[in-house]
Amino acid sequence: MPKQVLVLAAHPDDELLGPGGTVAKHSFCGDRIAFAIIADGCSARYDDITMHAVRINSLNAAKELGVSDVRFAGLPDQRLDGLSILEITQWIEGILREIQPQIIYTHHHGDINRDHRVVHEATLTAARPYSAPYVERILCYETPSATEWATNGAADHFSPNVFVEISDFLENKLEALSQYETELRAFPHPRSLEALRARAAHWGSVIGVMAAEPFMLAREIQNGK
Question: Is residue 225 a part of any domain in this protein?
């Protein structure tokens, strides 16, 4: 049976940087996918790029992967930690009630980017079992240039324990990311297409395939049925 999948991202392009190949694989398998992007992605960094332009990029990138359901909270970029966590959690709760996802992808709690940490916390709060009993699995993805730059202790370190082979879907991910011209950087920056290809090859080598994406399992509930 097709699954309903929800990818929560703090900023436009996060939804692809971490799980883009896995999203392409879900789409190929017939699963229904929704993107939920919390921050506007432009107010803290750009003077000449409008929220509308960023949203067009997001919609075009999603279309490359067969995703038509894209939600925007439009909250201020790089300022999520200054908002009430309740406001963010309630926005996510509304989406959960509407689409009732079985699988959720969200940020890793130890990322150096504070917006990522806030989205992680709000996700786990919104998806607590008594409020969202339909959620079977929550996976945390890495975000290149945010996850690996954090100087965390062992408890906060990104230590993947779930890997998804994306050998047949890596190019789909990179084509989708190419829609975000303002977010991509020149090699060897972690957000360059070359570095992302190398990163997928590295994680693939860990499990003996050509390309893979890593995740940390935050929660899994297996019903008795």
Answer: no
Whether the CB-CB separation of 163 and 212 falls below 8 Å is answered with: yes
Is position 100 within any domain? yes
Looking up residue 209, the CATH number of its domain turns out to be: 3.40.50.10320
- State which residues form the domain around 111: 4-220
CB 100 within 8 A of CB 134: yes
Q: Is residue 84 part of a domain?
A: yes
pTM of the model: 0.94
CA proximity to 212, closest of 22, 8, 17: 22
Per-residue pLDDT of the chain (225 residues; tens, 9 = 90+): 899 999 999 999 999 999 999 999 999 999 999 999 999 876 556 555 677 788 899 999 999 999 999 999 999 988 999 999 999 999 999 999 999 999 999 999 999 999 999 999 999 999 999 999 999 999 999 999 899 887 666 668 899 999 999 999 999 999 999 999 877 888 898 899 999 999 999 999 999 999 999 999 999 999 866
Strand order in the sheet with 32-39: 69-75, 32-39, 4-9, 103-107, 137-141, 212-220, 162-165
Task: Provide φ and ψ at 157, rounded to 5°.
Answer: -75, 140
Q: Identify which of 144, 88, 162 has the alpha carbon closest to the alpha carbon of residue 120.
A: 88
Instruction: Work out how many domains the chain is built from and give that number.
Output: 1
